[in-house]
Write a structure and sequence with these properties.
CATH architecture of the largest domain: 3-Layer(aba) Sandwich
Oligomer: single chain
Number of strands: 11
Strand order of the largest sheet: 3-4-2-1-5-6
Number of domains: 2
Order of helices and strands: EEHEEHEEHHEEEHEE
CATH class of the largest domain: Alpha Beta
Number of helices: 5
Structural class: alpha+beta
Helix content: 25-40%
Mean pLDDT: 89
Distance between the termini: 53 Å
Low-confidence stretches: none
Length: 171
């Protein structure tokens, strides 16, 4: 399948010969379906590229994985990609969580947008990042306020991830 990179979005044109994009959205909840295109974030597109399901082009030139990886690293979202990839590989539906001040919303296995609400909000931080008590409490407060659990995904220098399931407990 072919996708075209513009800025930070990869678009896949939908026509009679290319119904795979609709399937990607409806069955696996990738991207946003708009009229005759499927719009993918750079993270979603790179994931599909690594899996061999998408070829990304810019100005009719096919881009290599290393080129897209460098863009993601330059935009300082590579740690987010590592977490996204890990969650997808574990079988979860992962969508953006910007509306909730987090990187991702994660749906329980077997659930998806439109069928059910997401169960988790995922906040990605780096092992070397200092987090204040005020920041931390705001993440917990928002997740509790929208009836979701907070997963704190800590990415270390070796690109390993440690997840902490944070829940609000009233004493």
């Amino acid at each position: 399948m072919r996708g075209d990179l513009t800025e930070e979005i990869v678009t896949i044109k939908i026509n009679e010969n290319n119904r795979k994009a609709i399937s990607l959205n409806q069955k696996s909840s990738f991207g946003n379906l708009e009229e005759d295109v499927l719009e993918l974030s750079l993270i979603e597109a790179f994931y599909l590229m690594e899996k061999g399901r998408l070829k990304i082009f810019k100005d009719n030139n096919r881009l290599q994985e290393d080129f897209i990886r460098d863009i993601i690293k330059e935009k300082e979202i590579y740690g987010k990609y590592i977490v996204y990839k890990d969650l997808k590989d574990r079988g979860y539906i992962v969508k953006t969580g910007f509306k909730y001040g987090s990187e991702f919303r994660v749906y329980s296995r077997g659930n998806s947008p439109g069928k059910d609400h997401s169960k988790y909000l995922v906040k990605v931080i780096y092992e070397t990042h200092d987090i204040s008590a005020l920041e931390f409490s705001s993440y917990v407060r928002v997740s509790h306020g929208v009836n979701k659990s907070l997963l704190l995904a800590v990415v270390d220098d070796e690109e390993d991830i440690t997840y902490y399931n944070i829940e609000w407990i009233r004493p």
